[in-house]
Amino acid sequence: MLKGKLVKTLTTGSAVAAVLVVGMFLVPPKGRAANDNNPTQDEKLKIEIGARIAPVPLTIGRKDSSTVYLGSYLVNAVGGCNDCHTNPPFTPTGNPYVGQPKAFNAAKYLGGGATFGPITSRNITPDATGKPCGALLLRFRAGDPNRKGFR
Ligand code: HEC
Predict the structure, then answer these.
(1) Are the C-beta atoms of 120 and 112 separated by less than 8 Å?
(2) What residues pair up with 119 in beta bridges, in sequence order?
């Protein structure tokens, strides 16, 4: 009888301890950013940021808006495409390299024309095909002689 009660108490105690131990691992330590390792959530955040930081109004049309905003994130937050493909890249009072609050030159955004010695950056705004510089990937694949990459 006493033995049964002891076993029951120990079993309950172990269960409570197990819940506490598991719980310790579930709660992220305070003072550190919690990385949820959730790629879907991370992508949602990038899409939100991309929509917010686009320096020009984005034409969505029949495209998938999430894909457009994700592209904006890649171009504006990660790729730094504006730095070379907009000439000049910043407004006269928006150059972060001389301590001004950053403001992209929206009027010429990604219009190309910055020179690097003999090479000039291309206009990478969508053309009549809706893509930069024509059907770029197809041209690369076909070895089109009009392709304007590094030669
Ligand atoms: C360090 C400067 C620099 C950065 C940053 C840069 N580019 Fe370029 N890009 C160039 C130059 C210069 C050319 C022209 C090369 C040539 O004509 O040989 C070019 C060409 C291109 C072309 C045209 C290729 C073709 O075949 O016509 C595309 C598209 C392009 N860049 C897209 C991008 C994108 C997208 C980003 C951002 C992810 C980016 N570039 C960032 C300098 C840059």
Answers:
(1) yes
(2) 116
By three-state DSSP, how is residue 126 classified?
strand
pLDDT tens-digit map of 121-147: 888 888 777 778 766 666 666 665 555
Query: In angstroms, rounded to a whole number, what is the distance separating the alpha carbons of residues 108 and 85?
Result: 9
Smallest Cα–Cα separation from 150: which of 128, 117, 125, 126? 117
pLDDT tens per residue, range 38-86: 878 889 999 999 999 999 999 899 999 999 999 999 999 999 999 999 9
- Closest ligand 1 atom to residue 134 Cα is 27
Q: pTM for the complete prediction?
A: 0.73
First-last CA distance in the chain: 89
Report the distance separating Cα 48 and Cα 36, nearest Å: 17
Whether the Cβ atoms of residue 64 and residue 82 lie closer than 8 Å to each other: no
Residue 81 Cα to ligand 1 middle (Å): 7
Which residue lies with its CA nearest to atom 33 of ligand 1?
A: 81
